[in-house]
Specification:
By secondary structure, this protein is an alpha+beta fold. The protein has one domain: Bactericidal permeability-increasing protein, domain 1, CATH 3.15.10. It is built from four helices and ten strands, in the order H-E-H-E-E-E-E-E-E-H-E-H-E-E. The strands form two sheets. Strands 2, 3, 4, 5, 6, 7 and 8 form a seven-stranded antiparallel β-sheet that branches.
Amino acid sequence: MRFTLTALLCAALLVLSPHSNAGFLDQEITFTEAEVQAALARNTKTEMRYPGLIAVALREPPTIRLGVPEGRAGISAKMDITLLGNPPIPVEVKGNAGIRYDDQAKAFFLDNPTADSVESIALPREYEPNIRRAVTQLLKAYFREKPVYVLREDGSLQEIAARRLLKAVRIEPGKVVATLSPF
């Protein structure tokens, strides 16, 4: 009788578990693309200068698409590139980044952003590799200090638990999923 009750309880826990990707006793919390975008909207403009050569300025916070490309965050941004004292050239940047959790800050950051393409009708083709490197450096500087989500001490019970039990983090289409585990 005791074995049957235990087996039924375990089966009920597995069936009623709200998160099918989580292991036994694991829980998952998520935050959405909209929450990431709201966090980035609070951030100020960023600019990097390479004396005498180039200046790269982010005109507005980048747009983030979680899960595009698969398992990563897609980045779209509008920037101004200034070459050797010329007027700024507007460019469209496409890139991608991973996600990392910083235990000290109790926050999630976009990790290792890379500019995949830099497009502008006014940008000479021969400058594109150097511009892409400069844009990648600006993206790295921008996302290094700007969390896309912070676990609050006064947040939900899951957020409070995540501050101590975070096991893994991954990007899925439209959301970031953090797995919590007591083990």
